[in-house]
Amino acid sequence: MSLLRRKLGRDLWAIKGQVLTIALVVASATGGFLGSVGTYRALARARDTFYAQYRFGEVFADLKRAPWSVVDQVTRLPTVLDAEANVVSGSQLLLDNVPEPLTAQLVGVPPAVGPVLNRLYVRRGRMIEAGSALEALVDEGFATARHLQPGDHVTALLNGKRRRLDIVGIGLSPEYINPSVSGAFPDPKGLGVFWLDEQQLAAAFDLRDAFNHLTVIRAPEVSDAEVLRRLDEILRPYGGRGAYSRDDQHSHRIVTQEMNQQRVLGTVMPSLFVWVAAFLLNVVLGRQIATQREQIAALKALGFGNAAIVAHYLQFVTVVVGVGVALGIAVGLAFGRYMTGLYSAFFHFPVAAFRIELPLVAIAAGISFAAGAGGALLAIRQIVRLSPAQAMRPPSPPQYRRLLLERLGLARWLTTPARMILRTLERRPARSLLAIAGVGASVGLIVSGTFWWDAVNYLVDTQFNAIERGDAVVTFVEPRGSGARFEVARLPGVLQAEPYRLVSVQLRNAQHTYRTAIFGLDAKSSLRRTLDDQQRVVDVPREGMLLSSQLAQRLVVRPGERVEVEALEGSRVRREVLVSGVVKDLFGLFAYMDRAALNRLMSESDSMNALDLRLDPGRGVALFTAVKATPSITSLQIKANSLASFRETSARNVLVFTSIFTIFAATIAVGVVYNSARVSLAERAWELASLRVLGFTRAEVSTLLLGELAIEVGMGVPLGLWFGRGLASVLTDLMHSETFRIPVIIAPQTYVFAAAAIVVSGLVSALIVRRRIDRLDLVAVLKTRD
């Protein structure tokens, strides 16, 4: 074994604690990067494969009723490659072991063979067959949430008549990966998709030889806009509600938004971790190698050339980084598999396989190695320029000058140890600033990983307590007159009922368009309110409309300007409406009008199609029984159930992901503070030993070194809190979602937690360093400078 090889082994063993903590920094960054990016890529592959193999439609249209001959007319369009029609309807769903009525989306498909477009993947059981019994395939999300298996049965209201559905299989469809009511966030416990024999479903809803839903695959190199225009022309006489592209399809929109959030969490955050870890690695290894000044000089004196010395220290860096990357691969594999499984339970793709990708390993390892090598080469370059005799001497002490505080006349307020500490920091500003920056970066990472709990809690409190103040929402199949309000108000357990009209619309401002819904609210509505940025109530104007702030940005419109409103139901009226103001919505992008004004816009009398309810909690069972006996009610959504569903799906995924990243950030923070303290001790061992010989006590000597660490931590923490808030703001902007938006809300306890994590790391490091100071071999240390 060569001399340099033996030296490498001894050096690594001598600082094995530092090697391990540096490796943990690299492992945290590498594992987070590999696991999160790999998770996003696994999900993206699963989605794209599912869409392609099961022929997910590109354009869709809902309508009142059209004969099957219209499908042939659509298929003959030069812009259309393939088209398929079916019957789709919402319905109440009754389960024996669930007291409240649920919501079913009933989808007609050809029995035995299934649809040609939006094909079905049968996870368990079998495909439905034609027959007297009404067999059904149920979507996997609902089946899992409600513990349904092939062989079970449920009851659905088909056009007001109760029909038993025999479940023969658990299925998946690209059209209903994340089914939702009106495009809101998914509720797998409250909404189930059931695929039935299309002939029996059509007969139940009086749609024999007719359809009300159309799926289209457009011809290659044809724009969606052209297909939408031609479809609208054909379907308008049949009650067409406006064709829409895949981008506006409810399930795909939710999947895309969740995937975009995962993309940000899975690429931006870990990339920041890698670069921050690289910066810290550069600083720590550079300072570590600088402490071996005399050893490098001795190697030169023994005849080793600069190339051999550089190669030796690059091997040192390679071993440290290699250990970290190896640990990171193991961490990334476990992290990625866990997160892929977590998201797979949310997306319900047929297959979603996580794997470690070699290019990603090369990127993470390359960045870490380049950072460590850069710090090492910078330190070596400064030393090998010196002659061996000169390099063996201690570095020239910095030129003496008075402290800035001394020049300002404030030094008399400082003790002698405090002046010594401040002089050391001021005379080595670059090293001090790098240490402060390292602490600040660590604190910022912890803040950006922890604040999500505060933000989600604020989001839930605002949306479910300040905006939606009711306990439940009742929706009807068709718009009803004001008499329906009194019918619902008389149901058992209903304490208050406030009606609203919900209209699907297309909003347009010049070339900017968005498909959404307008809420028509009564003046002074108390169960559903609109709020501004300060959570102050904004009254819905008697004329004009309010837009959510995100929708106003999407349409590039300001208060005082007008937008074109095209209703996607009824007579498809098109009017220009004044934008009276903007409000702060955290869920969805919606518009709000006075209900009477919206009725006039739609050329309707006093109509509504939903009610917010305040309920008597002790009479829930009686209410559920009454709603089940009211066929005109499509659904009864209980707010508590919706909130629980949100916490169990979207919120849970974000919080689990960011909690794991908080652990990574804390690991990096501990590694940074510990190594900074240990390197400082190695750099100043001779000085500290000299002070001990001069009569300073162990406590006094420790104070000089640990005082520097305390000042660096004390200055780095506020910087890190500021950096963490900025990083949180960037992440939430990049994670913009139309389903829900995460606000930048950081509670004081989050700042305290981040600061405490660093302070505790500093205290632990201080105890370790203090112990080493107490055990300094004064003779051995001072002889190194003879």
List the helices and strands and how they pair.
Blueprint lengths: L2 H12 L1 H38 L5 E9 L1 H7 L4 E7 L1 E7 L7 E8 L11 E5 L9 E5 H6 L7 E6 L2 E12 L18 E7 H7 L5 E9 L5 H12 L8 E2 L4 H41 L2 H9 L4 H42 L10 H27 L3 H5 L11 H4 L8 H12 L1 H22 L1 H16 L4 E10 L1 H7 L4 E16 L2 E10 L23 E4 H7 L6 E6 L6 E10 L7 E4 H7 L5 E9 L4 H9 L4 E6 H10 L1 H44 L4 H37 L13 H27 L3 H6 L3
Parallel strand pairs: 4-9, 6-8, 14-18, 15-17
Antiparallel strand pairs: 1-10, 1-11, 2-10, 3-4, 3-7, 5-8, 6-9, 7-8, 12-19, 12-20, 13-14, 13-16, 13-19, 15-18, 16-17
Sketch the major β-sheet.
6 strands, mixed, barrel
Number of helices, where a helix is a run of at least 4 consecutive DSSP H or I residues: 24
| Strand adjacency order, main sheet | 3-4-9-6-8-7
Radius of gyration: 33 Å
Q: Please identify the structural class as seen in this structure.
A: alpha+beta
What's the total number of strands? 20
Share of residues in strands: 15-25%
Shape: elongated
Quaternary structure = single chain
Mean pLDDT: 82
What percent of residues adopt helix (DSSP H or I)?
Answer: 40-55%
Unreliable stretches (pLDDT < 50, length at least 5) are none
Terminal CA distance: 30 Å
Protein model, in words:
The chain is of the alpha+beta class. Among the domains are: 88-206, no CATH class; 428-468 and 640-786, no CATH class; 494-615, Barwin-like endoglucanases. It has 24 helices and 20 strands. The chain has a six-stranded mixed barrel. Strands 13-14-18-15-17-16 form a six-stranded mixed beta barrel. A four-stranded antiparallel beta sheet has the order 2-10-1-11, with helices on one face. Strand 16 and strand 17 (574-583) form a beta hairpin. Helix 2 runs antiparallel to helix 10 (358-384). It is elongated, with a radius of gyration of 33 Å. The mean pLDDT is 82.
